[in-house]
């Protein structure tokens, strides 16, 4: 990761160890997940819960892509989830900026859940991993299966099962 700074993109920065990318607009910071595995991958999130309009979101993505292109001399891979409200905008913009993007990875909640479950299951099967998610301790695949409906991604308007006080208490006791 190049650490060279310039005033052109002083409102954009990478997080610790290059994980995450942060964009400052009008004194508020907006963060996106990013990874460096096989090149930089920027995971766009739904910004519909912000006061940002489409023009601001467009400028934000355009400048983040330019920042990565110029600072890292690399075209990023952009990923987004089609089950999120901003997915139509992200689709339009990844087409519009395709010459500056290495690749686009599109997922949905079902696919993301399958990948998440398989990854968590593999880690738990080693017997070396313990996960604490939303106050629930997962030590075995049995624990994962028991609490899966509380952990998995859901669509807009759909809720995970609620985690009760008793779930958290049981997780602490076992």
- Encode the helix/strand succession as letters: EEEEHEHEHEEHH
Number of strands: 8
Low-pLDDT sequence parts: none
Q: Radius of gyration over alpha carbons?
A: 19 Å
Describe this structure in words.
There is one protein chain. With 174 residues, the chain is α/β, with parallel strands linked by helices. It contains five helices and eight strands, in the order ββββαβαβαββαα. It has helices spanning 54-72, 87-96, 109-125, 141-151, 165-173, and strands at 12-14, 21-25, 28-35, 41-43, 77-81, 103-107, 131-133, 136-138. It is elongated.
Q: What's the SSE blueprint?
A:
Elements: E1 12-14, E2 21-25, E3 28-35, E4 41-43, H1 54-72, E5 77-81, H2 87-96, E6 103-107, H3 109-125, E7 131-133, E8 136-138, H4 141-151, H5 165-173
Parallel strand pairs: 4-5, 5-6
Antiparallel strand pairs: 1-2, 2-3, 3-4, 7-8
């Amino acid at each position: 990761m190049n650490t060279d700074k310039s005033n052109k993109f002083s409102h954009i920065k990478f997080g610790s160890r290059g994980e995450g990318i942060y964009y400052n607009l009008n004194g508020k910071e907006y963060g996106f997940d990013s990874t460096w595995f096989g090149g930089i991958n920027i995971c766009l999130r739904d910004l519909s819960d912000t006061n940002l309009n489409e023009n601001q979101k467009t400028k934000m993505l355009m400048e983040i892509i330019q920042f990565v292109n110029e600072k890292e001399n690399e075209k990023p891979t952009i990923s987004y989830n089609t089950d999120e409200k901003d997915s139509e905008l992200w689709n339009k913009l990844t087409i519009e900026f395709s010459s500056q993007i290495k690749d686009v990875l599109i997922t949905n909640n079902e696919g993301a859940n399958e990948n998440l479950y398989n990854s968590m299951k593999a880690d738990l099967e080693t017997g070396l991993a313990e996960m604490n998610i939303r106050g629930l301790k997962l030590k075995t695949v049995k624990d994962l299966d028991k609490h899966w409906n509380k952990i998995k991604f859901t669509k807009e308007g759909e809720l995970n099962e609620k985690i009760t006080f008793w779930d958290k208490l049981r997780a602490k006791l076992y």
